[in-house]
Amino acid sequence: MISEELFNDRGRRWVYFGRDAAKPDTLIDTNEYLVVNKDAGLLLDPGGMEIFPAVVSAVTREIALERIEAIFASHQDPDIVSSLSLWLSLNDRLTVYVPWVWSLFIPHFGGARAVTPVPDEGMAIPLGGSNDLQLIPAHYMHSSGNFSLYDPVAKILFSGDIGAALLPKDHTDIFVSSFDRHIQYMEAFHKRWLPSNRAKDDWVERVSKLDIQMMVPQHGALFKGEDVGRFLQWLKDLKVGSAVANEPAEEPAAAKGEKKKK
Amino acid sequence: MSTLEDNVAELRRQALGINRSFAELSPLLERIHLMSFNAKLASHRLGHEGLSFSVIVTEVRAMAQELRVLIKEAEKEFWVVVNEVATWSKVEKENRMFQRSIDAVNARRNGGAPVMKWKPELAPGVARDWERRRSALDPQDPTRGMWERIVENRVKIRKNVLALNRLAARLTGVISRIDLVASRKSDFLAITSMIESARVVDKDDSLQTVAENIRLLANDIANAEEKASEQTVAFRALAAEMSRALANE
């Protein structure tokens, strides 16, 4: 599993873990992230049960396990957090932040203890004495209870499944190197997994107001610099909800705007 | 040597088999209940001559009721067993994941393959071996937390196996009582109902059909019970074998 430090300044660190070469082909590739503030760690979408050994071994190189104070699960999928019981087994003092709608579902992954439900409007996550990590609502993107996490110090947006790409096995770049070429790996995913154009437009509008240097999804390559804006524009123009064959998906807001102009 | 994982899988398979046998017994008891109504009516039609048969039918119903109570008791015991097996499976899976994790950490540290060769969890002395390895670790070692869980889980597994052995013995006790009722009593009632129906055959031959039904049901009950009994014996034997392996540590 590859580890890469994304940010390290003013006591704040972001570390990426992903592209696990030893992972069986039957599992989708996932990215996991560690945010450290001072000496306290927060794991973002720590991953599924099967990749736990790879993740924990990579994480222990970056931080002592007892220094990890919290886990954030952007939504309920098994590739996001089915390893929860193992993390809790190593440290039962962990605070586990999950969207409130999933707060009684996620404990089915094991651990048998209460999690911290995140209200629909989002909240700030305290870490190492600071309280600036913001959970941004991303409901229906794709899950009905879903959050992105924004760090105003690192200017990194952890977007969960938004921006996800299903990359070929030989694709080794951690960052998107050509946005136009990258579209082929994420278009079908976004059209199918995102169910609502209204929810999509709402999220794009919300995060467009943030100062984002890097957008890091849970699958595929990471976006930085101008590619963040390119992605947001591309998503704004994309028509999603492709599985509803008999009912045309709502038009994206951008297309509606163009029609009005005409 | 069979691995803990194999044994857990085998115990789970056997537990499900016992459950299926119970599931087969319940509808048979329901059939007895329905049949006894018809038998009562037929014996009433014969008046005084049908009194003996009526007593047999009452006994058949009482037997069905007795079996129902015993099966409930067995099912209660059985669910405690299922719970223990489920806990065990969870703990065993957790240990497997921690072992893989320690391997992954060591492989990263050594820049190559994992250095540890894991013994099966039921291997003699493995608990002492793991405890020794855990104690020898540097307090700052990143695998320390995982080693602690593995050793703790091993203690849980040992307790779990011993509890399972006791539970299997209790389940076998209930099954023996079911056996007593299902095989012997149902055989006896089948035979007496055949004799009694033959005695009154010149007055009403419909009781022979009832007696034949009692015989067939008694047969089915005995078969289903025998299956449950065989599976429970196998379950108990495996639990006892594992218990012995762990008791010697």
Description:
The complex is a heterodimer of chains A (262) and B (249). Chain A has helices at residues 52-59, 78-81, 84-90, 179-193, 197-208, 226-237, 253-261; strands spanning 2-9, 12-18, 32-37, 40-44, 68-72, 95-99, 116-118, 124-127, 130-137, 147-151, 156-160, 214-217, 223-224. Chain A has 262 residues and is α/β, with parallel strands linked by helices. Chain A has one domain (2-261): Metallo-beta-lactamase, Chain A (4-Layer Sandwich). Chain A has a 7-stranded mixed sheet with strand order 1-2-3-4-5-6-7, with helices on one face. The longest helix of chain A has 15 residues, at 179-193. Chain A is globular. Residues 258-262 of chain A have low confidence and may be disordered. With 249 residues, chain B is mainly alpha-helical. Chain B has one domain (4-247). The model of chain B has no long low-confidence stretch (mean pLDDT 85). The chains are: A alpha/beta (262), B mainly alpha (249). The A-B interface holds A 49, 52-54, 56-58, 60-61, 64-66, 85-86, 89-91, 110 and B 90, 94, 97-98, 100-101, 103-105, 107-108, 140, 142-143, 145-146, 149.
Shape of chain A: globular
According to DSSP, the number of beta strands of chain A is: 13
The total beta strand count of chain B reads 0
Instruction: Give the class of chain A from helix and strand content and strand pairing.
Output: alpha/beta
Radius of gyration of chain B: 27 Å
The biggest beta sheet of chain B, please?
none
Number of domains of chain A: 1
Most residues in contact: chain pair: A-B, 18 and 17 residues
The secondary-structure element order of chain A is: EEEEHEHHEEEEEEHHEEHH
CATH architecture assignment of chain A: 4-Layer Sandwich
| Approximate shape of chain B | rod-shaped
Q: Find the CATH superfamily of chain A.
A: Ribonuclease Z/Hydroxyacylglutathione hydrolase-like
Q: Report low-confidence residues of chain A grouped into runs of 5 or more.
A: 258-262
Order of helices and strands of chain B: HHHHH
